[in-house]
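Is this the right way to post structure tokens for a design question? Let me know if I should format differently. Anyway, here goes:
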């Protein structure tokens, strides 16, 4: 069946994940939660940051997790109510500030223009929150290309449950097998399989190397810049 829609992961697929989130996390921990500098680096490493490479490890909590998973990792002593409050604070007040650090991986409008000219429906499926993702796409002036932007808080269970593909299909009228899921982490490929997507496309523009993700994908590309040519070849 022909591909009629593309669902993009955000961090590492459309934007440079390390350059965007590492400075935001450092700023957040210091300014909002009064964490000492030495403890900040320990917390980042616990979440999957490798100081030797300046990148997040593939599949780590900071590379692929939701805000709730990050809060649980960093502050396990919080009560359920305190955890909910902290997640809400980060998602609604702090995470949207990432736009000051955001670095797109390429001129995204060129890719999206080409995909739209091909008649494809486009969406974003991220384990970031909806508000944060929307703020970033607005800041980059590409939000209008998307039929839907789906955050971890838009669905009952976030990636890799398959619920984001189900949500996208429910809103667009597409069948799962008509959707290509594109992402840089293993959970994106698992989302594709769990949701019955017609195509799982891995990109190497994030923190996953070829050996980390290619075996999980139908196709592996250096970046989304090569996606239009791939879809035309199918």
């Amino acid at each position: 069946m022909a591909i009629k829609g593309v669902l993009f992961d955000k961090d590492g697929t459309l934007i440079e994940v390390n350059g965007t989130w590492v400075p935001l996390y450092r700023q957040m921990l210091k300014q909002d939660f009064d964490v000492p500098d030495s403890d900040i680096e320990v917390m980042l490493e616990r979440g999957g940051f490798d100081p030797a490479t300046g990148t997040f490890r593939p599949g780590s909590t900071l590379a692929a997790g939701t805000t709730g998973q990050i809060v649980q990792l960093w502050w396990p002593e919080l009560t359920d109510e305190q955890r909910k409050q902290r997640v809400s604070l980060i998602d609604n007040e702090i995470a949207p500030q990432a736009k000051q650090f955001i670095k797109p991986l390429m001129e995204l409008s060129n890719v999206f223009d080409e995909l739209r000219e091909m008649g494809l429906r486009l969406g974003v499926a991220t384990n970031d929150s909806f508000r944060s993702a929307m703020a970033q796409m607005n800041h980059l002036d590409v939000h209008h290309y998307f039929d839907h932007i789906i955050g971890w808080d838009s669905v009952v269970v976030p990636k890799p449950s398959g619920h984001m593909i189900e949500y996208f299909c429910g809103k667009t009228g597409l069948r799962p097998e008509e959707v290509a899921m594109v992402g840089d982490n293993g959970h994106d490929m698992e989302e594709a399989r769990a949701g019955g997507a017609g195509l799982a496309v891995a990109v190497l523009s994030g923190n996953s190397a070829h050996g980390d993700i290619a075996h999980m994908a139908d196709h592996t590309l250096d970046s989304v810049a090569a996606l239009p040519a791939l879809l035309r070849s199918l």
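Format looks fine. Someone answered above. Worth noting: The longest strand covers residues 121-125. Residues 149 and 220 are 23 Å apart (CA to CA).
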